[in-house]
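URGENT: need a sanity check before tomorrow's submission.

F., can you look over the Catalase record below? I want to be sure the sequence and structure line up before it goes out.
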Amino acid sequence: MSGKKDELNQRDTIDNTKKAPLTTNQGLPVSEDEFSLKAGERGPTLMEDFHFREKMTHFDHERIPERVVHARGFGVHGEFEVYESLEQYTKAKFLTEPGRKTPVFTRFSTVAGSRGSMDIPRDVRGFATKFYTDEGNFDLVGNNMPVFFMQDAIKFPDFVHAVKPEPHNEMPQAASAHNTFWDYVSMNTESAHMVMWLMSDRAIPKSLSMMEGFGVHTFRLVNAEGKSHFVKFHWKPKDGMHSVLWDEAQMINGKNIDFNRQTLWENIEKGIPAEFELGLQIIDENDEFKMDFDILDPTKLWPEEDVPVQIVGKMTLNQNVDNYFAETEQVAFHPGSVVPGIDFSNDPLLQGRLFSYTDTQLIRLGGPNFHQIPINRPVCPFSNNQRDGYGQMSIHKGQTAHHINHMNDNQPEPLSPKEGGYEHYHEKVEGRKIQARSDSFKDHFSQAKMFLNSLSKHEKQHLYDAFSFELGKCDMEIRELAINNLLNFIDRDLTEYVADHVGVAAPSENNESTYDKSSPALSMTNTNFSLNTRTVGVIVMPDVPEETLKDAQEKLEQQGLQPMFISDKIYRIGDITLDATFDTVHAVLFDSLIVISGQQPLPAPAVENLEIAFKHKKAIGFGTDSANIFDSLSFSENDDGVTDIEQNFDGFLADVKGHRVWSR
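Structure tokens as predicted:
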């Protein structure tokens, strides 16, 4: 993939790893960069010092406005390969030539927090991918949840204002557990389905490579004959979907605010890519009205049992950025960046985004030429009569900049659809101008109930507790509002559980949805399970033989696991130098723990880490002379997920692969 990325950036890269003279931005070699020019050694700095002025002015202006939402992001380069031709659905070349590899850039993000917030708040995750195709850039700008908080984009500013820190005191950061958010969703019940996703384990992913991605909206695929199909886009992680526990998330955010991004960065540096398969849900135009909901409603998903996901290709993210600001911060996504064969539906939220994304890039990136920034520039040639503006990076030759023109033989010239020119789908549209919503959008609770019906026992308990935590942070008036206006229309058991935990009386009138459908695809228990990228914290006592450590390391690495040796201080055992101390790492940062004990008793930090790992239902292994370690612990070798690795190494691996030991 390195060749693909270099191809994108080769014209614009400044390689500061190579020997070069220090110069000004005009290329003038500089002889001094430690002292400004003064009138005498103790005198005032002179305005004549153009180098000082240039350096300081650039520093003063080197920040740009962060994104209003999705401010905290992490970007990775990669490539997408389509498995088989989709020409029966679309004429997009990158989807119709089997084996074709298209360079991509994907940016993962949180939504509510500022750029400096933590990696694992309870929040939606952005999942935006730019495909650099030969027909122009296609941006699939989605989230890790398939639905959204509102049906019409005109409500988006209200929602964002509500979920952001409250304006009078700028608190809380990167959190929905506060009054204005719950006031909004309680009064705008079209949010009910999305709130269920937000309170679920989907909102606290274990890894950026262990969450699904969704295009959210209903798009169109259009083939060469002009036939249209409705489509929803899915990303399916090869590593499966896995999350952290909420208690664990809060501890991780204290131990390592960069946990998700650091994990992805380090795995890619080790040569372990993040892989996602692209899936399509497709509905024939003739079947638009055959579902029991409106397929254009962005608060609804298409159940995978009713509309199967067809896996059509794979994205491999395998190269880190060279510079965070130039690439991750300056990348500009837009759902209106499409290629021939991909078009829009009348989803009212999508229609609003088609305006908003261009508008926000203009203020963030300084003007209309943000498409010329290297990370945004298409790999195919582009030419038009647009000129000038802030940040113009191209030199346009020729006398004309208008269409139609005679002087330049009408160049650049539009292409017909048969020649590759983009043609909007010829949809018949008619109706009165009206500010209203279709009745087919007015069921707010059925799919919220379906989501709850689909969860496993432990997932449902986590959701109940998430509601209790969030509403417990709100004023009593807001708790009552949410329970009466929102929860009481979703599920009675949920309503009574949360009401009891936050000190509110459950409504006497039961208005819960009677929708009894479930969808197994909505439960994270129905996913892939793998040892790929899994980490093991190995707690080591000083009197453990070197051969024991080498044997453990070899066995773990042979399975693709990533072991780290931990103790109370850094020391050597033979040729092995331990990796970390209890001061710098913690059980919450690992997928599992192993304790390799000698005759010495466990120190207090080791006991604390093992107890936390047990509480969070992680696999725990023990070995060597470990009989005495359980004297210090509240659990024993007979508990589920606590395994003698010398006697049952395969059992330990099975527990790690299962992510959690839910039977505890």
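My own read: The first strand starts at residue 73 and ends at 82. The radius of gyration is 28 Å. If you see anything odd, call me.
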